[in-house]
Design brief:
By secondary structure, the chain is α/β, with parallel strands linked by helices. It folds into 2 domains: about 260 residues, Aspartate Aminotransferase, domain 2, CATH 3.40.640.10; about 130 residues, Aspartate Aminotransferase, domain 1 (Alpha-Beta Complex), CATH 3.90.1150.10. Helices cover about 40% and strands about 15% of the residues. It has 15 helices and 12 strands. The strands form 2 sheets. The protein has a 7-stranded mixed β-sheet, sandwiched between helices. Helix 3 packs parallel to helix 10 and helix 6 runs parallel beside helix 7. The longest helix has 20 residues. The structure holds pyridoxal-5'-phosphate (PLP). Pyridoxal-5'-phosphate (PLP) binds next to helix 4 and helix 5.
């Protein structure tokens, strides 16, 4: 039987068929969960070869596992990169990339609105290891350039940014990074490769919290890094081997399953989010709404240019600030009050006291995370039901 040439396939087809197809031994359509910590060598010579990084085969699951490898192949494929490496969490992936590129005495330059855990890594842990993180407003690309010196080892940005939904110009920042011979790392968690492909815009390394849209069902913690083979090999040999944040075979399998429906889910997340953003815009108790798909968003044109669609996260502030916002969060009945995002279930939370409580009051004000800002991860429910729930919760203010 001849096979469809996947190089010609569109994104949705790749998501379903990319990871290798039918297992020739058993006919299984789903990649098996290779729940094994170790692998038998064919001979003493074979074992010795594998330890030298030669020959085909697996050694020990911390260094690699067939289910993990299938997920990595698929992610590299979908992001348009040479190779990928999975990790036990998004933070293991992000810290792994930084530790692979920076030594004591070095620095990195980053956008200033990032995931709260990334900000905490910058502020609390990296300084202990002699690494400085310089956070600047990267919506003005020149700010990145100004912060670079001869000890800078990488540029890091997150776009859309969590939770302000600022959009950063990947192409422009990549040009600046390359003019200084530095790699650009992009946290692509909010967009996923379906909505945005940073490597095609000039970035060198992509990181994900696969916990979110990649898994998509709120049942897994995982991370992944995509980049050139040489860098990924080094990351596996240095960071995964020595620090050990390996993904479990079961979690790699859950992510493979998630990827099959990624475009279908993202389309629905995006259309639901757009409807809710419009509903909130016209609600009398709402101060402001931020969604990159709204023409009122300050970076709407840039979002149009570098993204396929605008994502599933909406932020807003109600009249009466934090207190009134708490009323909304305490009164939703369908939407769940919880952190995380990208689940089938809609989730609502308060960044200033929850996900971004790692930012000081001054830092929150500087990056525009107001006391009243509410973040809504719009799920896959019927949009009318979500709007009804928000309507009744807003009426309690
Ligand atoms: C959740 C998240 C992370 C951290 O990922 P974990 O899987 O929770 O470790 C990093 N970046 C962004 C944008 C996130 O939303």
């Amino acid at each position: 039987m001849s096979k469809f040439d996947l190089r010609k396939a569109h994104f949705s087809t790749l998501c379903v068929h990319g990871s290798g197809g039918v297992d020739p031994q058993t006919g299984a359509l789903s990649v098996p969960i290779y729940q094994s910590s170790t692998f038998a060598f064919k001979s003493a010579k074979h074992g010795a070869q594998l330890f030298q990084g030669e020959g085909e085969g697996y050694v020990y699951t911390r260094l690699g596992n067939p289910t993990q490898a299938a997920f990595e192949r698929e992610m590299a494929f979908l992001e348009g990169g040479e190779a990928a490496l999975a990790f036990s969490s998004g933070m293991a992936a992000i810290s792994g990339v930084i530790l692979a590129l920076c030594q004591c005495g070095d620095n990195l330059v980053s956008s200033d609105t990032v995931y709260g855990g990334t900000h905490n890594l910058y502020k609390e842990s990296l300084p202990n290891w002699g690494i400085e993180a310089r956070e600047v407003d990267a919506t003005v690309p020149e700010n990145i350039e100004k912060a670079i010196d001869d000890k800078t080892r990488l540029i890091f940005i997150e776009t859309p940014a969590n939770p302000t939904l600022d959009i950063i110009d990947i192409q422009k920042i990549a040009e600046i990074a390359h003019a200084h011979n530095l790699p650009l790392v992009v946290d692509n968690t909010f967009a996923t490769p379906y909505l945005q492909q940073p490597l095609k815009l000039g970035a060198d390394i992509v990181v994900h919290s696969a916990t979110k849209y990649i898994g998509g069902h709120g049942d897994t913690i995982a991370g992944v890094v995509i980049g050139e083979s040489e860098f990924i090999d080094e990351l596996r040999a240095k960071i995964l081997r020595d620090i050990g944040g390996v993904i479990s075979p079961l979690n790699a399998w859950l992510l493979l399953r998630g990827l099959k429906t990624l475009p279908v889910r993202m389309d629905r997340h995006c259309s639901n989010a757009m409807e809710i953003a419009k509903f909130l815009t016209f609600h009398p108790k709402v101060n402001w709404v931020r969604y990159p798909g709204l023409t009122t968003h300050p970076h709407h044109e840039l979002a149009r240019k570098q993204m396929r669609n605008f994502g599933g996260i909406v932020t807003f502030e109600v009249k009466g600030g934090r207190k009134a916002g708490e009323k909304v969060m305490d009164n939703v009945t369908l939407i769940t009050l919880a952190v995380s995002l990208g689940d089938c279930d809609s989730l609502i939370e308060h960044p200033a006291s929850m996900t971004h409580s790692t930012y000081s009051t001054e830092e929150l004000a500087k990056v525009g995370i107001t006391e009243g800002l509410i973040r809504l991860s719009v799920g896959l429910e019927d949009p009318q039901d979500l709007i009804e729930d928000l309507k009744q919760a807003l009426s309690k203010i």
